[in-house]
Amino acid sequence: MTNRSHVDALNDALADSFALYLKTKNFHWHVTGPHFRDYHLLLDEQAAEILAMTDPMAERVRKQGGRTLTSIGDIARRQRITDNDAAGVDAQAMLTELRADNLALVAALKEVKSLADAADDNATSGIVDQWSDEAEQRAWFLLESLAG
Predict the structure, then answer these.
(1) How far apart are alpha carbons 75 and 12 in whole angstroms?
(2) Would the CA dihedral through 137, 139, 145, 148 be positive or negative?
């Protein structure tokens, strides 16, 4: 049995969300190629959606009596989604990487949900369903964009 709390898991998912947000914006800023406009707009929409969930995530941590992220360094220590600092990443590689990262976020959120359920934190459990659905939808859109 784990001693990991749902608040710790939520803070880690929050760090992953910030890492995914910045990576999505990075790719939005640097995408090139024949589908530039479509990918540029898609990634901007996805980044906005990711950023929109960060404040409610942090507030859930605080409502449960926890202390949430304090700095870029704190995010860097907690994030499991890796950065991509490479120059000239191919658009298809960008979408493939972001799809995998969104699915990794879904897995992290499922851990949060399981731990929140065990802690009888129904509010966190319920809102995590929405965040998971949004991440699954982003992954789906990225997959379908790759098929085109």
Answers:
(1) 8
(2) negative
For 88-106, how does the pLDDT look when each residue is reduced to its tens digit (9 = 90+)?
899 999 999 999 999 999 9
CB 90 within 8 A of CB 36: no
Which residue reads 């507030």 in tokens? Answer: 59
C-beta separation of 80 from 104 below 8 A? yes
SS (H, E, C) the chain: CCCCCHHHHHHHHHHHHHHHHHHHHHHHHHCCCCCHHHHHHHHHHHHHHHHHHHHHHHHHHHHCCCCCCCCHHHHHHHCCCCCCCCCCCCHHHHHHHHHHHHHHHHHHHHHHHHHHHHCCCHHHHHHHHHHHHHHHHHHHHHHHHHHC
Cα distance between residue 8 and residue 5, in whole Å: 5
Kindly report, residue by residue over 120-148, the tens digit of the pLDDT: 999 999 999 999 999 999 999 999 999 96
